Amino acid sequence: ERSQDTKSKLPSFSWDIVPVWLRVRKRTAYSKDEIAQIARYPLVVFEKANGHTAYGDVESGTLAAARAVKKTSSTTKVVFYFNAVIEYGGYRANKEFEENVEKWAVRKDGSIFKFKDRYNLHDLAQPGVREWWVRTAKGMADQPEIDGVFIDAICKVNLRSNAYRDGYSKMARKLRDDLDENDLLLGNAIRASEPNSNLDHLEYLDGSYCERWGVPMNGESYESYVAKSIKVMTETVAQGKILLFSAGPGAYGREGSLAASKRTPDEMHRWM
Known about the structure:
By secondary structure, the chain is α/β, with parallel strands linked by helices. It contains eleven helices and eleven strands. It has a seven-stranded parallel beta sheet, with helices on one face. It has a two-stranded antiparallel sheet with strand order 4-5.
């Protein structure tokens, strides 16, 4: 049974309508109409690249959007996005990372490796990286308008060395310990193709995003993979965790790939 303290940090939930959450990003400032739309949701994750061209950096842009949303809807849970692995641009915190990049970035064949030939990767085997990352996430969560942190790229951690995975585990648990009791800690964790479907991460998370649940791996059939995905999502909810279910037209079966050929919202609407 949940304690009252735990209940108070969760977003409002009712089956009266299908419950929907939002993840959104915009490099410029949100308009009043956009803030009004965002504030209708019980939970919003302000993804990477929010407001940095208008406010100077992602942290400031996220806070500006969060304050505007809270003025409209004090009950909307506003969550700060921070990628565990990828150094996405625009963050004020990146200045410190760049000052230490020779030691803190992941290397391959002796040189700094660039993800998509563009982004540095955080070397989570380095204690300094972990301390920097936790300090950044905690600093945002400490703002009164921010209700928690969303950790992205947890699935990418499994692709790296034991030292890297151990470093991530230490980092994530340190953040959980450092956050206030009523701060949400969410992440992009559960996935049927991962070892134990990444359910172990629910030990420290309040909930998990679930994407690519309809994208089979290793030649598995669509039907078989979706069945596994449904099972892991059910297990997540059975633990009393939030499930941030993600679905677009591309998720639905073999014809989902046809969605990519629809160029306008009207075309997509007719196709769906």
